[in-house]
Amino acid sequence: MSGDEGEPGAQPNSRLSVWTWRILTGLAVLLFGLTLFNASWLAPTPRGTLRLIASRGVSQLFDHAGVTEDSCTATRIEPPVHDRIENTTRSMTDAQRLGASMVQVQVVSTADGRLALFHDWNLDCRTNGHGPTRGATLAQLQGLDPGYGYTADGKTFPLRGQQGTHIPSLEEGLAALPGTSMLFTLKSHDPAEADRLVMGLKAAQREVEQRGDAFTGDPALLARIHAAFPGAWTYSKQGVKACTVGYLKTGWFGIVPEACRNGTLMVPVDRGWAFAGWPNRLLARMAKVGGRVVVVGPQGSPRLGMGLTLPEQLSQVPADFKDFVLVDDIWTIGPSLHPDRDFRTQAQIDAANAGLDRRRARGD
């Protein structure tokens, strides 16, 4: 009797096991199909070379944890291993010499209608000046010490008083990099600043589209840049997010979202596996819609900026990847990729290596 009573209970469990097996098998087949459909080797090997974007040229790295628009990052720097100051012409030319294919600079309007290359809204953080940056004339900005406020310990200021170093005008920046692509960051929301930049570039006879210059900032300002230079690369934070998140959702089905058309997709160096077709098939899909792909730094640590900060992170970039890599520390990563272009002295190399060891010890 007891054996008969157990029989009816066995059949549902048996049916459940069959359906579980079928579902798991179906999922496995689907996963295999999607993986094969997105296999990188199905796309041709991209042509060209890997290109480094030097964020702010050769700059002082700083702790990004808790940073806001109003934070003074000059007081958060790592102990300096070189004496370059971001956005200066020396910083820009040294970035190019170390292997940068593109150098990022920040653009700001002055009180007398000129454009300077400087990061902050206010002068009090980095310089020996005071008040809003846009409230000063170009001559007043260039009379300031751009390294005055940099300190790693709050007590010593090793970048103060550098002879011949000043906040450059747009024209000086263009003259420093006549043959190198530039990424212009527009921090303002004022359309007049975009118009001023367009006029400055045209007055300097800069061949923006042929040179491969790029622009990032507020979408309304970028629309004005695009109207003047239709073939130039422009991208906003909002556009990058829409393209990147959209592709993560649809890319595995071979669908490139509309936000990626002439757009920009950013791939964290440690998350390539999450992007369908990485790298070759993804590059081919983006190229087909006129888009670009930028590899950025690893995710996770609030201390990190957007770009790569350690030379060994380059090993995580596939050898076939032939597009842009954003770099925060061109001083060490440039020579790692282009050792033949390393002009640093042995003392500078030793100091840089000591700085890298400190960064690794922090877990960056």
Describe the structure in your own words.
This protein has 364 residues and is an alpha/beta fold. 36% of the residues lie in helices and 12% in strands. It has helices spanning 2-37, 89-97, 138-142, 170-176, 191-203, 208-211, 219-228, 237-250, 280-288, 330-337, 346-361; strands at 51-54, 100-109, 115-117, 181-186, 214-217, 233-235, 264-268, 292-296, 324-327. Mean pLDDT is 90; it is low at 1-8.
Helix/strand layout:
Layout: H1 2-37, E1 51-54, H2 89-97, E2 100-109, E3 115-117, H3 138-142, H4 170-176, E4 181-186, H5 191-203, H6 208-211, E5 214-217, H7 219-228, E6 233-235, H8 237-250, E7 264-268, H9 280-288, E8 292-296, E9 324-327, H10 330-337, H11 346-361
Parallel strand pairs: 1-2, 1-9, 2-4, 4-5, 5-6, 7-8, 8-9
Antiparallel strand pairs: 2-3
Helix pairs in contact: 5-7
